[in-house]
Amino acid sequence: MSAKRVLVVDDEEAVRLVLKTVLASAGFHVVEAAGGEEAVRQVRNADGQFDAVLLDQHMPGLSSTETLRLLRQHLPPSKIVLLSGMPILEPEATGSMAGERFLPKPFANEELVRVVREAAG
After folding, report:
1. Fewer CB within 10 Å of terminal CB in the chain, N or C?
2. Domains parsed from the chain with CATH numbers
3. Tens of pLDDT along 19-52?
């Protein structure tokens, strides 16, 4: 059985490194994106062949709402996990993010792995 592919999208390199390290040690194949534009490009180039996407909710550049809309063209909402240190979603996003999983920061490594496994199926 091959490793599940996970795309980690966060503008902070240190956060991406921690997420990648934890998920790789749990057996996932992790690909990184530093922002929404890069994430959408990676998913398009892979023809949606990611088992899960971790998407930081607050990043500069392409908003998480727009990134999410574009990702949904290639992936079902159940494969997308939104990460945020803030409990409230962007006001314009509250109606458009139904179906995605939400993982509030901070979280335990075990919780991260469990949520990603659930999303990846």
Report:
1. N
2. 5-120 (3.40.50.2300)
3. 999 999 999 999 999 999 999 999 999 987 999 9
